[in-house]
TrEMBL record:
The keyword Nucleotidyltransferase does not apply. PANTHER family: LEUCINE-RICH REPEAT RECEPTOR PROTEIN KINASE EMS1 (PTHR48055), PROTEIN KINASE DOMAIN-CONTAINING PROTEIN (PTHR48055:SF50). The chain crosses the membrane at residues 12-36. This is non-specific serine/threonine protein kinase.
Amino acid sequence: MPSNSTKNKGSLVVKIVIPIAIMVSLAMVIFGSWLWRGKYMSKYISQPSFATKFPKVSYNDLARATQGLSTSNLIGGGRYSYVYQGKLVEDDIDVEVFNLETRGAQKSFIAECNALRNVRHRNLVPILTVCSSIDCNGAEGGALVYEFMPRGDLHKLLYSTQDSEGSSNNLITMAQRISIIMDVADAMEYLHHNNQGTMVHCDLKPSNILLDDNMTAHVGDFGLARFKISSTTLLIGITNSSSVALMGTIGYAAPEYAGGGHVSIAADVYSFGVILLETFIRRSPTDDIFKDGLGIVKFVEINFPNRVFDIVDPQILQELELCQETPIAMKEKGLRSLASMLNIGLCCTKSSLGERINMQEVAAKLHRIRDAYLKED
């Protein structure tokens, strides 16, 4: 029989050595997971091509640049991130900050990094650098640094100065509206048709359209973007096809998303069409008047083309009346241009995907409308 000392030694092994071995193994697994995660993140985030002006910027540098992510510097936000205005090395910047510990934020951050490293166009928001590190509170954070857009976003331009009765004192000329929509169309044409890997934005809306000093529009926020590899299948994104109904924003998301349809460039076209209609009638698709089956698309359809002047932003009518050209001639040209613009919006928002025109057609039509409107008679 084994002696008591042998039993005690065996008991000691069970009580001390085995728990230590388990703890060491667990620590190795955690460290390996952390190391893999770091390599996985760096694969997507450490992109030298981003570092055009600020090659090495820490998360804490960006916190200081935005006065500690102060609410006074907050200019916008989405489901996974917030956008702050700041100043870095004497340059004004916009900083999109992600809390990577929030569920879904890390995938959104990686998706946006992936999207931005693959696209270059004058009407896409210019990115200066990217940062992923631990913040001063020990939380894992990520940030994208963009060129500062002094005119804010299209939603702000349309609605920020509305009075209590809903009318707006913020002057946006007819020509500016056409140009902004044309800029967005050019950006979307590039994403859909001229990029090496076709990209679907998946969340196009006015707050994602930023304006520089010259009122040139830039499409941003690629946190939901996906790259197409076939007519219906997508390679990169933050959701799978079974959860596609969660994509986009209410009022702008294509109707097929609600039924669990596949992501497609046609869905972006629908969102673009809603934005076009909204820009000229100056009513959000979630406006209180849109209820009981009446949406922004149906509202325009039932008034098109004979009652166009009854539904467009009154500011446009006032502009046409005050034009130095003869009022009748200018009104006729304005009516033609408005009808043409709204018609494009309606062609983009057909309920059937196959009936919607593509962004190549849209961009070409918009350039012709802009040229015709600006041409002196």
